[in-house]
Target: Cyclopropane-fatty-acyl-phospholipid synthase family protein
Amino acid sequence: MADAAPRLKSLVEQLLGAPLPVRIRAWDGSESGPPGAPALVVRNRRALRRLLWKPGELGLARGWVAGDLGIDGDLYTALDLLAGLIWERGDDARSLGQAVRDPKVRAAVRGLAKMAGPFPPPPPPREEVRRVRGHLHTRRSDRRAISHHYDVGNDFYEIVLGPSMVYSCAYWAGAGSTLEDAQRDKLELVCRKLSLKPGQRLLDVGCGWGSMAVHAAREHGVSVVGITLSQEQAAYARKRVADEGLTDRVEIRVQDYRDVTDGPYDAISSIGMAEHVGAERYLDYARDLYALLKPGGRLLNHQIARRPQKDESAYSVDAFIDAYVFPDGELAPIGTTVTQLERAGFEVRDVEGLREHYALTLRRWVANLEAEWVRAQRLTRPGRARVWRLYMAASALSFERNRIGVNQVLAVRTPQSGASGMPLRSRAWGE
Model:
């Protein structure tokens, strides 16, 4: 008799102390749960073992990446329904200690263990980061982390990002705009905020596949040095530069920002890179960039931010993202970022929040990936493709729910005279 799904639903609800808002479809073909809701597909008993050995977000992530768990129905709706149980329970979440003391929870765990079978814990999927001992955010550990995320294959990223090959929040005139137009408008916004002029030198920190460097050189006549730690990104960017006939104005380096010594620069762009720096290194990062700028030079720092926590000392990195997406990545509140930049000597002149813009961008990336799902899996691995689909969809919801934000911070190395060179009218960029 096929009854795994109703048994699972009952045990999981007993464990969580809350009703499941999604259906469950089990490996024996049975289903149980709210009619019309998306289904959490439990494809085998191994999925249960993953959840029992690693309860919470990481166990669910391992099941998803390995293909033991899936979603039948709209992914966004499913994640939205599950968010309250997985990510947003806050102070109401049952701690492991509470669970051990609760007889009903212990009974539910025993029931799930019986369904899972007497087997050892499954190994983590190969896509999971293998941790090594040592300090975070050394040059070596940062290279390894960047390679994990960005050296997935340029063909794969072409599917996700589209022709613009920009891996950061676009700037939307409206929901009807194309992704390529919105990314071009974002690059142009950065150039106007930096007030780039022909003959100036721009340092693009974390240059990715060269989109900002090419746009700034082609449209504003500046000389650009773009730096990245990804060998694959650098090779792709150099080819783009050559194809555009800009080799005399754009240099792409595989280089750590801490090793750049050929300043001063008139302007610096750092778009979607500072999330990799880490809290302990952030002030040094800001000081390094400050030292590379001419007096009066501008920095445009485009960075994802998290919301402040009640207890900042208790904050922990998102388990799924740290294990599968951005190893060693850290998010800080926007107030912390502004403070660190000013401690380094910068005068912060403008902060623009683009939270809704990133939600739109991520939904377009997910749509691109889903439209070429079979080819995307072939270009990388099925598990890696599943990582990116879950990460981008969940991130879109996080931006929409105001769990995280993204901001462009414009800062100036104001000279002692106090003449910042900034326009009198707010956001009259380019004057």
Observations:
- Confidence is low (pLDDT under 50) at residues 90-97.
- The chain has 17 helices and eleven strands.
- The longest helix spans residues 382-400.
